[in-house]
Amino acid sequence: MSRFLKKVNCVQILLFPHSKSRLYRSVTSKRTNSTAAETKEVDVRLIRNFSIVAHVDHGKSTLADRLLEITGVIKPGAERAQVLDQLQVERERGITVKAVTASLNYVYNNEKYLLNLIDTPGHVDFSNEVVRSVSACQGVILLVDANEGVQAQTVAVHSLAKRNNLVIIPVLNKVDLPRANPENCKGQMKSLFNIDPETVLSISAKKGWGVKELLEAVITRIPAPTVDLKSPFMAHIIDTWHDRYRGVLCLAYIHSGRVEVGSAVRWSGESKQHVVKHLALLRPSEEPVDSAVAGQVVMVGCGPKGGGAVGSQLVSSDHPAATAGAGAPAVKHMVYAGVFPADQSQHPMLSDAIKKLGLNDSAVSIHPDSSPALGQGWRVGFLGLLHLDVFSQRLFQEYKAEAILTAPSVPYKIRVKGAKIIKQYKGEEVIITNPLQLPHPHHIEEYYEPFVIGTIITPVEYLGSVNTLCIDRRGAPLPSSAVDDRTTLLQYILPLSEVLVDFHDTLKSITSGFASFDYQDYGFHPSPLVRMDILLNGVLVEELTSIVHASRAEPTARRLTDKLKEMIPRQMVQVAIQAMVGGKVLSRETLKAYRKDVTAKLYGGDVTRRKKLLKQQSEGKKKMRSVANIKIPRNTFIDVLKR
């Protein structure tokens, strides 16, 4: 009988591969959980939660690899570098996009410590990942390239760590390279951050020099989390993602109490209860556990319908009313773009892909949108142009979804005259993320433009060129300071629209790649903005409406009409392409019509016959133009609108 059952089970696994994977998961989970139940509960005194923060390409992921090797997670000399960079887009671009957690075990002074490492991105477009990561930490490793010195993003992440009252371990990386100048970098850190040079550690993450001493410094310098084990369970969510079989999984930092598999929990502000079905440590692969205590960073799963949002709180069922905890701060989106399916038949598939990716990337905002030219789609908010590029690339790589992205635009604010008369606006000040939402200019009292505070660190020999660039981009200078005798820190108040397009590339070009740039939101301020309309033979094309600064109106109009002349296919009638602001035409291009040679049949004779035929053709074209409806193919709209 037992042999027969074994054969039946084998047949079932062969015929139903999905059942096999689920059966394997459940059996493996039970076995691992039984092992985990025998292990001793983690002592809070032996927990250390820390992040690695730095400027772009200063060696965060390489240092994370060495830490994984020392703690035995991976073997030394493994072929695959940057283990925590798990996304395909991260490996292709060589940057970190998602903050990834790894729970490491390390024995120090005969005691076994649990080290929760969070590897964070360095680019300003993914600063939201850094903000969420440090909310679960008590300290950070501030990594500085010994060749490049302190950069703009280094200043930003140091300020973030100080605001969160975190212990900072200053570290110089890449000290093995010939151009390294550790003493100069220590002087910069002393000048900018008032960091004692004696406390700065020197390492080479690539070769492993000094990494073990750094790991021990994490244990000795960073304190254990301050938590309350006796209070009811409460945790806040720092990341979420979707699993095909288990639904929404959450990465949570536990503030108080303890949680077990089978515990009854609920989301703050909701009364519906859920049961904890999955609990695991990320090492960085999942290691299921039976329970977790305050101070730990764990993965929690409550089934397909038990998912929450990043920043929300997960509490025990008997926990009192939710209080304002350490949730994620509100995200301020810098760029908006339209996302449309290449074909409307692909709308359901693209919708599902965007929802799942939006769950994993909490920094985006997604709202339904529609366009007469492109059909049904979404208006998506991003933190920057690189964020937009990575989002579209992940859509294709992870979900095989092809999308059309329109040209990015920044959000504006307007003050409306007689807001009560215009029903779609509830208040006097309205945020405009799509130029199509703009009311008639007669109803707009004032425009407001978003500004940022830009921080630039540049060698002194490029100071003149950098100042010229910032002033050309309508920047207003703030007090500057010297980093050392060869480097200067500049700050400018800049319009966001001038920063996003090509400011960073131009800055790198004029400074031979030595300058670095970072920016922070400075809010909305009054600005002389105008609404630019595009007309084809006097007919308004709403999809091409845009908001521009008054000083940039004419060059923008010329550039847009030239592009439209190249993109729009020729018609049977002449097409006048006009860029207009407030009833005034700033630029015009004429697209010539197809013309039949009506005089081809003439062979000599009187010239009046030729003139008569040309006159008849001219009158016919004029009549046709007066009644013609200029139809622009969808592909042309895509070419004009897309980035």
Automatic annotation (TrEMBL):
Residues the record lists as binding GTP: 54-61, 119-123, 173-176
Any one of the GO CC terms: mitochondrial matrix
Gene3D superfamilies the UniProt entry points to: 3.30.70.240, Elongation factor 4, C-terminal domain (3.30.70.2570), Elongation Factor G (Translational Gtpase), domain 3 (3.30.70.870), P-loop containing nucleotide triphosphate hydrolases (3.40.50.300), Translation factors (2.40.30.10)
SUPFAM superfamilies xrefs: EF-G C-terminal domain-like (SSF54980), P-loop containing nucleoside triphosphate hydrolases (SSF52540), Translation proteins (SSF50447)
Bilayer topology term: Peripheral membrane protein
Localisation per UniProt entry: Mitochondrion inner membrane
EC number: 3.6.5.n1
Entry's family note: Belongs to the GTP-binding elongation factor family. LepA subfamily. Belongs to the TRAFAC class translation factor GTPase superfamily. Classic translation factor GTPase family. LepA subfamily.
Job description of the protein: Promotes mitochondrial protein synthesis. May act as a fidelity factor of the translation reaction, by catalyzing a one-codon backward translocation of tRNAs on improperly translocated ribosomes. Binds to mitochondrial ribosomes in a GTP-dependent manner.
Classification via NCBIfam families: lepA, small_GTP
Protein name per its UniProtKB record: Translation factor GUF1 homolog, mitochondrial
Lineage: Eukaryota, Metazoa, Ecdysozoa, Arthropoda, Hexapoda
